Amino acid sequence: MANATNSQDTQGGAHGDGAAAHAHGVGRYFGVWAVLICGTILTVITGRIDLGAGNILLALTIASIKATLVILFFMHMTEAPAANRIVFVVSVVFAIVLIVGVFGDLWTRNGMTLPSAAPSTEGPEIEAPAAAAPLAPAPPVR
Question: Which of 13, 96, 120, 138 could form a disulfide with 8 if both were Cys (CB 3.0 to 4.6 A apart)?
Fold first, then answer.
């Protein structure tokens, strides 16, 4: 048993030098945290500014940067195996494709088919037919 433990330690096992190589200080976390706080403040400030159609693009960009920082540093994706990084990159690309697809669909639609479209007040007025004579009461059923 002692030999198995020693061989793991010399090959960079859980208690060997390999774990020390991945150790990083608290300063790194505080730096990323400060950037995330600045991103949150930037989100609040830009949310109060009317940029027209640019509001959604700016909000998605800031949110994506913040999410990427959380994944890379707090979830230790920078130290993850290559397969995990590939899964992360593919998922980000897939999310971008979905977002572009949704906005591409919305930007090419007719205004009345959009979810936020209100009934149009333009165009010909529809008039109700002239009032017909009142209906005679139905005969009683025997």
Answer: 13
